[in-house]
Amino acid sequence: MAITMTETAAKHVKNFLIKRGKGIGLRLGVRTSGCSGMAYKLEFADVANEDDVQFETLGVLVLVDSKSLPYIDGMELDFQREGLNEGFKFNNPNVKNECGCGESFQV
Q1: pTM higher than 0.90, yes or no?
Q2: CA gap 55, 9 in Å, rounded
Q3: Could you identify which of 39, 45, 92, 97 might form a hypothetical disulfide with 33, taking C-beta atoms 3.0 to 4.6 angstroms apart as the criterion?
Q4: How does DSSP classify residue 65?
């Protein structure tokens, strides 16, 4: 089981945590939502929860709740800038189908 980040994503998270002035890492999970059934949830974590599985990649701690892990195991998190747009990109090998807008997925 593993969740990884690209160098670009890790640098972005580290810089944001510094600007934020607190936090231990990034919390990643899934929730029921969207037209395809599931959507990613991403937030900065200040503390680890009891059921979190922890991964460290390039100096960034990634926390995943145990219920979300089967849906995102093996995922690589990237951060991309294209023109004026920027954001995280989820490279999830478990995805079988995505909605047209790219906001939700099925496994």
Answers
A1: no
A2: 14
A3: 39
A4: E
For 54-86, the pLDDT digits (tens) are: 999 999 999 999 999 999 999 999 999 888 889
Neighbour tally for 61: CB within 10 Å? 18
* Cα–Cα distance for residue pair 18/14, rounded to 1 Å: 6
The C-alpha angle with vertex 37 and arms to 35 and 41, in degrees rounded to 5, equals 105
Question: For residue 79, which phi and psi values (nearest 5 degrees)?
Answer: -130, 125
| 100 pLDDT higher than 60 | no
| Gap between the Cα atoms of 55 and 41, Å rounded | 17
DSSP, collapsed to helix, strand or coil, labels residue 58 as coil
Strand order in the sheet with 85-91: 4-5, 76-82, 85-91
